[in-house]
Amino acid sequence: MNTENVGICITARVDSKRLPNKILRKIGKKRALRMLCEHVIMSNRNFKPVLAIPASAENDKIVRAVEEDSIPIEIYRGEDDSPLHRLVAVGKKYGWEYIIRVTADDLFIDMTLLRKQVNFCLSYNLDYTYMGKCPEGFAAEVIRLSTLEDIVREVGDKPVEFVSYYLKREGVNYKEFYPEGAYQYPQLRMTLDYPEDLAMIRAVLSQLPHDANDTLSIITHVKHNKWLMNLNRLPRVSVYIVNYNYEDFVVDAIESVLNQSYRDFELHIWDDCSTDTSVKTISQYLTSLSFEARQKCQLFVNDANMGLPAMCNKAVARARGRYILRLDADDLLESNALEVMTNALDGVGSLEDSKISGVFSHYRELYHPGGLKSKPKFDKKHPGCCMLLRGCVNEIKYRDGLERLEGDEFFARYEKAYKTAVLDDCLWQYRRHARQKTANDK
């Protein structure tokens, strides 16, 4: 295996929205950064490691941590908001043909597996390879530099955080690398992304012998103590509702989510500084729920009106599910909506294409006042009540400042990057009333 032109680029920053300063958090007596670098450096004789961080002053804290912990790694400072551009800059600076991408979330990179993964990538002359069957937190990605440069030419100066979503598509020669059977335990998450993840990592390591933090030791321990996985288990689906002055409708929307046949979801309700009694109405309703139902819900209230596109971006950034669904506060889900759409995206429904990144469905029109119009219809891809991959939505994002038809603009860009499909099922109700912004569109 010729690895002279292969290097490791660790991307890190301090301004994570979900867990700020996570790379500097203490786990036992060590910072997370030191733990990550120990895995990457101590057992590594093949690949040069470089730490790529933003140039902004707030990330000086990472530089000081490297110096204080005497970590033997070179640091590159570059583009603040785009890990993609930092990766390319590092690869070009060191003359690498392939970049091993390691994120600051993945503290337990397994170098034995990584060497096999690199050999697999070079042997098949791939542009990209990833490892999806081992636990999160142990695997890296191997990417050809020229493939990343192609993406930069495509996106220009646009910041790109979720690099992987540009790599798993037509035109890129990629394959998944499968580790040996003992390593295949993908339901385990030992990555550092949410506060719950920090609790999980601290709990597991506190129960293991000193420095017994190799992959198989951790997997074996968790298999014998499966309750640990409840500490940072993520919902499969995130549903979010953005409400502004829909006190008459929003509880119906919430109830339609809580009545779903599919139960592996979280529901985030975002109120955009309503001037009616929406917050009181929502709060009273949530208070009346059973403990189990309340556990699925969170209410967030803005102290200033941001507008729907900005609120959607904020909601997506806070969501934790693999799939995400936006439900407008005046619409309703049918009781089987999440089940049908999740099954479709998981590959156990009516879809055969594993590269589908979103599903839409037919709907019925609910007139207020007047009742339900029973004939199902589908006339355009509406931003509400479709299920999309959360990472893809986070990458595309809604365009701030649009006052209406933000969904049309969003999907024009989304479908240039990702494939979607329309299900035959009628899975939601679109409420027609005089106060909606699109009341006169049809």
Write down the CATH topology of the largest domain. Spore Coat Polysaccharide Biosynthesis Protein SpsA, Chain A
Q: Any idea what the shape is?
A: globular
- Provide the domain count: 2
Counting DSSP E segments of at least 2 residues, the number of strands comes to 18
Proportion of residues in β-strands: 15-25%
CATH second-level architecture of the largest domain: Alpha-Beta Complex
CATH class category label of the largest domain? Alpha Beta
Helix percentage range:
25-40%
Describe the sheet with the most strands. 9 strands, mixed
What's the number of helices? 14
Rg, Cα atoms, Å: 23 Å
Low-pLDDT stretches are none
Structural class estimated from helices and strands: alpha/beta
**Cα separation of the termini:** 62 Å
What is the CATH superfamily label of the largest domain? Spore Coat Polysaccharide Biosynthesis Protein SpsA, Chain A
Mean pLDDT across all amino acids: 90
Summarize the structure.
With 442 residues, the protein is α/β, with parallel strands linked by helices. The protein has 2 domains: 6-186, Alpha-Beta Complex (Spore Coat Polysaccharide Biosynthesis Protein SpsA, Chain A); 237-432, Spore Coat Polysaccharide Biosynthesis Protein SpsA, Chain A, CATH 3.90.550.10. It contains 14 helices and 18 strands.
